[in-house]
Structure formats: C-alpha cells, structure tokens
Design goal:
Strand content: 15-25%
Mean pLDDT: 91
CATH architecture of one domain: 2-Layer Sandwich
Largest sheet: 7 strands, antiparallel
Strand order of the largest sheet: 17-14-16-15-19-20-18
Number of strands: 20
Low-confidence stretches: 1-19, 22-30, 621-631
Structural class: alpha+beta
Helix content: 25-40%
Number of helices: 21
Shape: globular
Radius of gyration: 25 Å
Distance between the termini: 72 Å
Length: 631
C-alpha cells in the first residue's frame, strides 16, 4: 500500500511540474486584454454601460457583457475573498443603487462670450445641459468625485458649458474669446484622471467652460520611412491602437486606462504605459507636440530624432495638467507590430524574492515589454477573479497547487507572482524567455505558465469595475502610486501597510483595511509601486474625508521613506499640498513665471500642482519643509 501511495505522489509531482512548464506558445498580436470595439460609455462612472459586476447567486458574481476575457463566467471565489480581506459580509440585499445629484447650480453665463461663441461653433457643438455639465466636472477620483456623486453630492464647482472643437483654428478662436471675455477653459480628454485635476476650483467666480477634445481624434499621417505618426490629441488609446494596427503599427503606450484616456491627457499628466520597457514612457513616445496657449502655439520644428537647441519648449508639454493651454496634436514614434507576443509568469516564496528577481532582470538588461510583481494580496485577488476550472483543466489546476504548496512548500499567504509580456521577433522572445527562466529558477521561483501571466494582465482592466461594485456597499477605495529607488522599496511597502492599519484603528474604521500593491515598472535606479487601498465607510461620519486624511498620511510616509510624489498619475489637486517638498522655491517660481507668460489672464485656471498655490502659500510650505529638515 505504501508503494502505491509513493507512486501516486510521484505521479502528482511529475504532472504538477509538467503543468507548470506548459503554455508557452507565441500568441497572435491581435490578442489583447482590453476591448477594441466601440461602446456606450458610462457618463459619470467607469467603463462601458454593458459591463458591470453583478450577483448571479447569493455569494457569486460575474462580469456582464462580452468585452473582456473575464466576462460571462461565474466567479465564486471573489466575494469570499473580499469578505476575508475586509472582515465584512457582502450580501445582494445590501447593494445600494447610486443616488445621483438631481439639481445643478444655475449656469454662470457670460452673455458676450456666449454670443461670440455662437459665431464660432454650431449649436450641436456647445451645450449647457445638466447631463453634459456634470459629466465634464469631474474625473474618476474615487473618493472626492465618484463616491460623492454616487451619493447625490455635487463637485465643488460645476462647469457652466461644454464645447467640442474640431480643429486648431477653432481652438485658437476659443482661447481668444475666453481671454477677451474673462472666461475659464478646462481641457477635457477621456475623463479618467484620478488626481482631481478635472475638478473646477470651488472659488472660481468666472464662467467655466470644459473643452472636450473628442472630435479631434484623427491620425493625420503615418510616415512609414521614419516610423512616425501625426495624431490629434483627442484620440483615445483604444482608437489609436486600432488605427495603427490596421496600418501594421503600434504606439506601444498601453496604460490601464487605454480604452478611454487620450493622447493629450497622457502628455498633460506625464503618463506611463505597462510596456514602457520596450516602447518608452510618454516623453519617449512623443517626439513633438503642439500646445496652443493664449500667447500662441508652442512647438519646435522640424521634428528630428534629437536636437540641442537650448532649453526645449517640448518639456513644457509634460505634466502641465491643463494649466498652460490645449494640446492639439503630437508627432509620435510608432513601431512595426511585433512578430509574436508571449505571456509568462513566475511565483516566488515572498515579496523580497520576487523583488530580487525584477532587480536582476533589470541589471542584466533582459528587457521584456512588461514585467510586474504582485504582492500576496494582489496575487490572491487575481486567483479570486478566475472562474473554477473543470474537467482536465480543473485537475491540472489542483495538481499545480499541490506541487507548489505541498511539494515545494510555498506558503499560500506569502507567495507572490511576477507576470511578464514579451514582444518582438520569435528569436528575441525565445532568448528573453530562456534568460527569464534561468534567473527565475536561480532565485527559487517556479514558472507559472503563460495562462498565469495572461490572467494577471486581464485582471488589470477589471479593477475600476470592482471599485464601482464595492462602492455600492459603502466600501471606499482608490489607487495611488510612487516611484522609489530599489533600496527603499521594502521599507516603503512595510511602512505604508503599518501606517494604514494604525490610521484606520485611530479613525474607527470597521473591519480590516485592504492594501494590495504591485511593482508595475522597473528602471535601473528603481521601480514604480502601485497601491490599491480601501476600507468600509460604515459608521464613519464622513467616509470620504476620513479616506483622504488617511491617504494623505500615507503619501507623507512614502515621501519620508524616499519615494516620489507620483510616478504617472500626476499631482492634480489631491497631491498639491506636497509640491513644496519635491520642488525648491526657485523651481516653483519658475513654473509660475512660465504660467504668467503664456497665460497672463489665467484662462486655464484648473489650478493644479504648483499653479494652484499662491506664491506666499508655496513659500510657507517650503519654509515648513526646511524647518522640518533642520529639526
């Protein structure tokens, strides 16, 4: 009998090892985790109207529609996962329907401006309806925007009108009218901003007009000899990739918001994409762009690979967050579609081992298009978002778990996962896979197969839908990110976790706080750490204010531990109080001087980052920071 057991266990081990090494075929380039087909968007909340999480049983949910690989199948592990993490029960009868604002403040109309605007734009491209005004008065910041709107609260200030220009001449005319009649313009791209950058300053007394760039969405030219494309700034990432793919190209810029965010928004917020290792961050994707300001267009000509012509106005484009003017078009570097794409994954015993793996990969210059590391909490979320496998697939899944947990002795509450995307020629991808496998095994990792990697990227596009689903239970949450040197990463994540638990206890938060994180980008000098944080608002007098107080403290400890204020979300208004800690007084003065020169009447008064601080406020912050350093 003992011999039979030994043979059986041996077979299990063999099958488990084989299963872990399966699934490494090159994939069709057309396969993607995000949806490329058009659809009707939610006007106020995230995503498409045909896609949402819903109950399909007392404790089972599914994602509706057919847009995502995740959609359609029951997900029996998701609700139990959330309940374990938060220490709360999720029952269908406790779902709360959004209660939207029903009455907007009266339009602050500038009659002379509106009369002149009627000469510039036809009636169907200007609006002051309540629906258009509310939809253009916020981004997707969960707490101060989405959470409050879903409970019937209005933003601090609602725009008074929305316009849809369709060319540079109309943009120039619109800016001239706004300057002449003392009207505020706020550029609006995809509305996905999560830093409060689209919120109108509550103290603004002038008429505020949102400039929706949706009609400026053309690919104007593809230069096949130099691999460049001239593209209008209002195009969404989804549409940009679809049109480039039809011509045999890709921009390679794939942020989590690609379906809805726009090229202009990427530039204005200094964005990053998940495949930056191969294609670069937005400042490397964009060769040149046109920024139209009240003082005229800012751009440099001709477009060349690189030039040394003094201080480059091109740098003013990145990170101005709508405060200098409107980006209308950009010349971007494009790339021929790769011959193949391959997903892969590795599991490691703990976060430190996985981080060491990413560091070695970076040092050896292996360079997969994307490589990420999910901590244990996020790793378990990915598993909770997988449908139950049946038949042979179910058997293989159980054997893999048996091998990892029982034979290799990994702990389910400590193990982490690295997900990888490789793109290029078949030879290049094969070499990358061999090098990644060698390093992974040397550091004690186990290959998790292509499906594990693919599922990790698919789950990325479900996060915001999860946010809106849990919001209906009063669970409040958001993402935030930082960049940090390799030497600071473990101290940052440990301190953030400890601080979160302490702050939640002090504020009387019910249940447990949720914190997951992943290393989403890596560089020779460090990484981007991407956090997801949430907790129940039950029993709190003002859940949104409590959340912001706690998150503010977390940002402070990140800076104290050597992290940055932001890696790619920008500053907006939610991080504005920290700008004097990351810029010197001279730098802040230079930014404001640039603003005063290009926009002397503050037409673009979105008041983000340094542009939202009066000089005396910035000096007070700088003095406070310096005093803290001396102490």
């Amino acid at each position: 009998m003992t011999g039979v057991v030994v043979v059986a266990v041996g077979l299990l081990v063999i099958v488990g090892v084989v299963a872990l090494r399966r699934g490494r075929p090159a994939l069709a380039v057309a396969e993607r985790s995000w949806d490329a087909t058009p659809g009707e968007r939610n006007r106020l909340f995230w995503g498409y109207r045909d896609t949402a999480f819903e109950f399909c049983g007392p404790a089972t949910v599914r994602l509706t529609g057919a847009r995502y690989p995740l959609a359609g199948s029951p997900l029996p592990d998701f609700v139990p996962y959330v309940e374990r993490m938060l220490g709360l029960k999720l029952r269908p009868e406790d779902l709360r329907e959004p209660v939207l604002p029903t009455e907007l403040p009266e339009v602050r109309s500038n009659a002379a401006f509106m009369a002149a605007l009627a000469e510039l734009l036809p009636a169907d491209r200007r609006s002051s309806t309540d629906g258009d005004r509310l939809a253009h008065s916020h981004g997707q910041l969960s707490v101060d925007e989405i959470y409050r709107i879903a409970r019937g609260e209005l933003p601090p200030r609602v725009v008074d009108a929305v316009v849809w220009p369709q060319n540079d001449d109309e943009i120039e005319g619109l800016i001239a009218l706004a300057e002449a009649h003392d009207v505020v313009l706020i550029p609006y791209g995809g509305g996905t901003n999560v830093s409060g950058a689209l919120m109108c300053p509550g103290s603004e007394e002038r008429m505020v007009v949102a400039v929706d760039m949706a009609l400026m969405d053309r690919v104007l030219e593809i230069d096949r000899e130099n691999d460049l494309a001239v593209v209008e700034a209002g195009i969404t990432g989804r549409e940009l990739e679809a049109r480039l793919e039809a011509a045999g190209y890709t921009s390679g810029h794939i942020p989590d918001s690609i379906e809805f965010s726009t090229l202009g928004g990427w530039i204005a917020t200094h964005a990053s994409g998940m495949k930056k290792n191969r294609y670069g961050n937005i400042e490397e994707v964009v060769r040149e762009a046109v920024l139209i300001t009240p003082q005229g267009a800012v751009s440099s000509q001709p477009v060349t690979p690189r030039h040394s012509v003094g201080i480059q106005p091109r740098t003013w484009l990145f990170g101005h967050e709508g405060g200098l003017g409107i980006i209308t078009r950009a010349t971007i570097q494009v790339h021929r579609l790769p011959e193949c794409r391959q997903y892969a994954s590795f599991v490691f015993r703990d976060f430190a081992s996985g981080l060491a793996y990413l560091h070695r990969v970076q040092r050896e210059g292996i360079g997969p298009a994307s490589i990420r590391l999910a901590n244990n909490t996020e790793f378990r979320l990915g598993r909770a978002l997988a449908p139950h496998a049946t038949g042979l697939g179910g058997l293989i899944s159980r054997l893999k778990s048996f091998y990892v947990l029982k034979v290799r002795g990994f702990a389910g509450d400590r193990m982490v996962a690295s997900t990888i995307v490789m793109e290029g020629s078949a030879h290049e991808v094969r070499q990358q896979w061999q090098a990644l496998t060698r390093l992974g095994r040397a550091l004690g990792g186990l290959p998790g197969g292509a499906e594990g990697g693919r599922r990790g990227y698919q789950a990325t596009f479900a996060i915001a839908y999860i946010r809106d689903f849990l919001n209906r239970f009063g669970i409040i949450g958001e993402t935030f990110e930082t960049s940090a040197p390799w030497s600071c990463v473990e101290a940052i994540v440990t301190t953030v976790e400890e601080t979160l638990h302490r702050e939640c206890a002090e504020h009387g938060v019910q249940g447990y706080p949720y914190l997951s994180y992943r290393v989403s980008q890596s560089y020779p000098a460090g990484v981007c750490i991407y956090f997801t944080m949430g907790f129940s608002g039950g029993g709190l007098a003002d859940p949104a204010a409590t959340y912001q107080a706690i998150e503010h403290r977390l940002r402070a400890v990140i800076l104290e531990q050597g992290g940055s204020l932001s890696h790619h979300h920008g500053v907006g208004k939610v991080r504005q109080g920290f700008v004097a800690q990351v810029h010197t007084p001279a730098a802040l003065s230079a930014m404001r001087a640039l603003k005063a020169e290009l926009d002397p009447r503050d037409v673009f008064a979105s008041a983000n980052h340094a542009f939202g601080l009066a000089p005396d406020e910035a000096q007070d912050q700088a003095d406070s920071v310096e005093q803290g350093r001396r102490v």
